[in-house]
Amino acid sequence: MRINAAVLWEQGKPLSVEPIEIDGPGPGEVLIEMRSAGVCHSDLHPARGDWPMKVPVVLGHEGAGIVREVGPNVTHVRVDDHVVLCWAPACGSCAACRDGRAVLCERLDKVTYRNRLPSGAEHLRSGDRKIAPFLGTACFADYVIVPEEGAIRVDPTIAFDALATLGCAVLTGVGAATTAARVPKGATVVVIGAGGVGLNVIQGARIAGAQQIIAVDLHERPLELARDFGATKTMNGNDPLPRGVDFVFDTVGSPRTLTSALDAIRKGGTVVLTGLSRADCQASFPMFPFVMQEKKLIGSVYGSGRPTEDIPRLASLFQRGELKLQELVARTYPLTKINEALDALASSDGARGVITW
Question: Alpha-carbon distance 80 to 335, whole Å?
Fold first, then answer.
């Protein structure tokens, strides 16, 4: 089948929106017609060359659509189901999966992070050249093929603009607060970076019952949004962070923000790092406080939970009015404007840009 897709042929160069071919789904796979796709920093990094990556590749990993065809042996979804994409479909049988830590599934290292599908099939091509699916998802395209575990069924009455960011930014941010950190009621929380993930950390902290939520950013527009999402205070990132806080969430992931975060937490406090930096980035910080003050630094990927359960739960929170989703969509673009969407993301325009069909 011929589709339109945003292909990265060379890192550091604009994506090319062009016709390519996609095969039908194989065993355990589904074909999804895309309806919305969020534009995330994890798409920007490979596009700009921050992460070394083999090309060509179709980017995009955060989105929602409608199942149009299912391959043999598919049991979890049916044709016409509305689904949110999960770029980390777990195997369900490795040690991490058995321990309830699906986002650390051993299969992800072998396939997802190598831009492959679990089946090993290569469904995308241009002429005789194979094209890789970014994170096994490749949703900057009219249609995608994912394993059935990567298509999470949701209520069809939920609008696709609301679902666009649920499968990455929302899951990552809310989960960092509620699952990775387990923020208790009454806690004081600082969130560095009020972008797509940061705004959802703020939502997660609010849902958890944090008493004070301080949002930190270099730009005023994200800080305005942060107040709407539950921040009780905002501050410019050039100013020193308050000291003695319970939790700091670093959604930026730079050496400077991480050092500031570690300085800000109280004795026994926790820094949660969700921000992905350049692949070669390293940070240095004093080791002494980790012993004498029992400070903690933890990482959190993709909400640190079970996406197959967490995505429907978050969708239900939205339906009950307890979670903001549509407010995350600051700008919408057709697929042909994907490079403009990436430029807006790079300039920190606030919230998420979303590709719509």
Answer: 22
What is the tens place of the pLDDT at every residue in 189-241? 999 999 999 999 999 999 999 999 999 999 999 999 999 999 999 999 999 99
Q: What is the CATH number of the domain that holds 333?
A: 3.90.180.10
What is the domain range of residue 78? 2-165+325-356
Q: Are residues 338 and 289 in the same domain?
A: no
Instruction: Tell me the pLDDT band of 352, cut-offs 50, 70 and 90.
Output: confident
Rounded distance between C-alpha atoms, residue 77 and residue 149, angstroms: 9
Say whether both 7 and 54 belong to one domain. yes
Nearby residues of 43 by Cβ (< 8 Å), 6 or more positions away: 59, 60, 61, 134, 140, 342
Specify if 320 maps to a domain: no
